[in-house]
Specification:
Layout: E1 9-13, H1 17-29, E2 33-37, H2 40-48, E3 55-59, H3 67-77, E4 83-87, H4 92-100, E5 105-108, H5 113-146, H6 150-165, E6 169-173, H7 179-188, E7 197-201, H8 207-215, H9 232-235, E8 240-244, H10 251-263, E9 265-267, E10 274-276, E11 280-285, H11 289-294, H12 300-306, E12 309-313, H13 323-334, H14 346-354, H15 360-374, H16 377-400, H17 415-437, H18 442-449, H19 453-462, H20 486-497
Helix pairs in contact: 2-3, 6-7, 10-12, 13-15, 14-16, 17-18, 17-20, 18-19
């Protein structure tokens, strides 16, 4: 490869020596620096090196990886990078196909200096306008999403500091709560913003496909591997990878991921070459990873490697002050052009505030899209009221079966929080009963409860139980007689703390 002048750099992928030399001369005369590649593999290698490129000129016919394949790979790496395709064949279908695959311009060879200048000027202007629009759109989306909830505002205030730290980030929260929005905002504010952000949903693919998608594979590694393919880690070199639903990743893959996080290197599936990369990893999950560790479905060492910075996104029902503001933004987002957006009636807004939105922001967006289709606030109000009634019907049996001794401690927190508190109290009672029966011999208590010794220690620490035969009653809890049978004690604790390590 060669470089000249100090203007924006144009990467040229062309296997013909004479045409390469002509393009260097023409581009230098237009004030551009030039980098040369003889085939698609060299083009991709240069882009993965992290060097800045303003645009790419690609010949459609090149050895090894041809122009069309290279175009597709580049578009995955960086969808905003302008790519101008060149061909010696005058074929409208080829031009249309290239444009559909993401090419900004299509030039027929031989390329004149005038047509080259026009194509580059248009492509770079389009990129600049697209970047500005993307920044404006991101700013509006971010402002609407974070709203005025104190927890969300605290997360927003820390984003810049976290983004520049370049450390792994673990984002936890219920499905649909907006974990990916936070990950994309972190990437946009980081020094890696001009590099790709690639996402993989670990729960959406079989383990074999997850491995090949992450690490790539060599030709012949398995049936159907007709040529080697770079994985997401290789493609995202210099950028960021978001591993969505990390809690569903297979244990074997967790070990390989841990190696990449520790050493920043890996091997393709079926390969022997060690590939070094510089990738920031963000992970998102709706699962409780601490419970998954006890159940031995998630590696503890991987958890602590990912959990350098941890963010918990509250559910939409926990930030009801933001529901209407987010809904108004989504209405503007999904409203058809030249068609006035429907207003929310007082009844509909009241019902939206009373509904718990178990699907969180994603469910709210689907509701708004339905409003855009039917544009009937009355029918949607009735539909939402029916859902509220069903939610209340589910809560009623829980309230009826609540022990009388706990009546004075009932609060206004959401029903799920009350269920969790009740479960934790029952678990603490079960542990305390076992400890009292064994005179606080924790190994004997663990055996009595049929869980591992370490699992018992972990649950005691989690529940704030002191290593003392004197039980400590936390605020909002009552010391009451243990009313659970031995069978209920054992089954209740095994359900939440099974598979801990044995004593």
């Amino acid at each position: 490869m060669q470089s000249s002048t100090n203007g924006p750099t144009i990467l040229v992928g062309e296997d013909d020596l004479e045409l390469r030399e002509y393009l260097v001369t023409a581009l230098n005369a237009l004030g551009y620096s030039v980098e040369l590649a003889q085939n698609g593999d060299q083009v991709l290698a240069y882009l993965r090196s992290g060097s800045e490129v303003a645009a790419v000129l690609l010949d459609t016919m090149m050895p090894n990886c041809d122009g069309r394949e290279t175009l597709s790979e580049i578009h995955v790496m960086n969808s905003t990078l302008p790519i101008i395709m060149m061909s010696g064949w005058s074929c409208t279908q080829s031009a249309v196909a290239a444009m559909k695959c993401g090419a900004a311009e299509f030039l027929r060879e031989p390329v004149s200096q005038g047509s080259l200048q026009k194509a580059l000027t248009r492509a770079l202007e389009m990129r600049s306008a697209s970047s500005a629009a993307s920044v404006r759109a991101t700013s509006v989306v971010t402002k609407a999403f974070f709203g005025s909830n104190p927890v969300m505002m605290e997360i927003q205030s820390r984003l810049t500091q976290i983004a520049w730290a370049d450390a792994p980030v673990l984002i936890q929260g219920e499905t649909g709560s907006g974990k990916e929005i936070i990950a994309r905002e972190l990437h946009a504010q980081s020094p890696r913003a001009n590099k790709p952000l690639l996402k993989l949903n670990c729960a959406a693919l079989p383990p074999e496909l997850v491995e090949s998608e992450l690490f790539g594979y060599e030709r012949g590694a398995f049936t159907g591997a007709f040529q080697k393919k770079a994985g997401l880690f290789e493609t995202a070199d210099g950028g960021t990878i978001l591993l969505d639903e990390i809690g569903d990743m297979e244990l074997r893959l967790q070990a390989k991921l841990l190696q990449v996080l520790q050493d920043q290197e890996f091997k393709r599936v079926g390969g022997q070459e060690t590939i070094k990369v510089d990738v920031r990893v963000m992970a998102a999950t709706h699962r409780n990873l601490e419970c998954a560790i006890l159940e031995r479905t998630f590696r503890e060492d991987l958890y602590y490697r990912l959990n350098v910075v941890s963010l918990h996104v509250p559910a939409l029902r926990e930030r009801k002050e933001d529901i209407l503001a987010i809904a108004q933004f989504l209405i503007q987002k999904h409203a058809p052009k030249d068609v006035p957006a429907p207003g929310l009636t007082r009844e509909l807004m009241h019902t939206m505030m009373n509904y718990n939105w178990p699907g969180n922001v994603r469910e709210l967006e689907n509701f708004v899209r339905k409003l855009m289709i039917f544009r009937d606030c009355s029918s949607l109000t009735r539909e939402l009221e029916a859902k509220v009634a069903r939610q209340l019907a589910l809560v009623a049996p829980l309230a009826e079966t609540k022990p009388v001794a706990d009546a004075e401690f009932v609060d206004d927190s959401p029903v799920l929080e009350q269920v969790i508190k009740t479960k934790e109290q029952a678990e603490a009672d079960a542990i305390l009963a076992a400890l009292n029966c064994t005179r606080w011999n924790r190994k004997q208590a663990a055996a009595r409860l049929k869980i591992g010794y370490k699992a018992l220690l972990y649950r005691m620490k989690k529940l704030g139980m002191e290593d003392s035969p004197i039980p400590v009653v936390t605020k909002g809890q009552a010391s009451r007689p243990i009313a659970m049978t031995a069978t209920r004690i054992e089954s209740g604790l095994r359900a939440s703390s099974a598979n801990g390590e044995g004593a």
